[in-house]
Task: inverse folding
């Protein structure tokens, strides 16, 4: 597939989606957002795991504020502005699409993950960050509120007061502190970021695809659901998983004391 502001690479069963406007720190333009949405669908259809990363020295600096190519035009008349419209029509559909994926996905973060870029990075199932990575809720700096589900993601992961501090002050959260707070999974050497992300994604791609897909959805649901509903959902998902070819293979491998060879069925 031909893209202008992103790159898509299929390596075996892993799809790599790379934001590719390094001179703009991968700021989101209307075209880039559209291409991201298309690429996610393509990878989900053809791969068993996905990586989202950024070209150059940043993951994503958030929405483009370039007057020549903004993600959302700013009307000179404040009463005519609706900056929530770009969320409703362009950004929120991407976040919902990622939440409902049938395959696991990883974010590989180098440099800035700011604004919506931070939400995109932190929505991943697993998050790898290089030593140069940082996460910034920059909205208060320009008089806006966090978006991309940031208030949901952060408050349920690092707690209310830490989330308040990050969002009120807009300060950078280093990869080291993000790891200590339980917001990300691993911090790796900058030169090894893509290699480590691909290794992890390959492990996921070689796993029981159906079970992993249901597991990620169960964890998302459990973030908000009651204990009782979580138990009910797990019961229904286990019924489906128990009827899969992957379960037959996993059980046979366990009995035969060998590694399971899952094939995505």
Result:
């Amino acid at each position: 597939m031909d893209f202008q502001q992103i790159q898509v690479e299929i390596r075996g069963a892993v799809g790599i989606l790379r934001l590719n406007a390094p001179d703009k720190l991968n700021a989101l333009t209307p075209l880039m957002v559209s291409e991201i949405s298309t690429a996610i669908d393509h990878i989900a259809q053809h791969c068993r795991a996905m990586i989202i990363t950024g070209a150059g020295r940043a993951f994503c600096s958030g929405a483009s504020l370039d007057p020549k190519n903004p993600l959302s035009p700013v009307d000179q008349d404040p009463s005519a502005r609706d900056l929530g419209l770009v969320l409703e029509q362009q950004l929120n559909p991407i976040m919902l699409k990622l939440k409902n994926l049938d395959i696991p996905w990883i974010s590989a973060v180098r440099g800035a993950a700011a604004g919506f870029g931070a939400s995109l990075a932190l929505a991943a199932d697993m998050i790898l960050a290089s030593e140069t990575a940082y996460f910034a809720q920059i909205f208060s700096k320009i008089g806006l509120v966090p978006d991309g589900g940031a208030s949901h993601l952060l408050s349920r992961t690092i707690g209310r007061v830490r989330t308040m501090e990050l969002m009120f002050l807009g300060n950078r959260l280093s990869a080291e502190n993000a790891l200590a707070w339980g917001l990300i999974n691993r911090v790796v050497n900058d030169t090894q970021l893509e290699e480590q992300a691909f290794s992890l994604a390959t492990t996921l791609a070689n796993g029981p695809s159906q079970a992993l897909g249901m597991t990620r959805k169960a964890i998302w649901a459990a973030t908000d659901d009651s204990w009782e509903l979580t138990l009910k959902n797990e019961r229904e998902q286990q019924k489906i998983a128990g009827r899969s070819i992957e379960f037959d293979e996993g059980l046979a491998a366990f009995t035969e004391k060998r590694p399971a060879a899952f094939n995505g069925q």
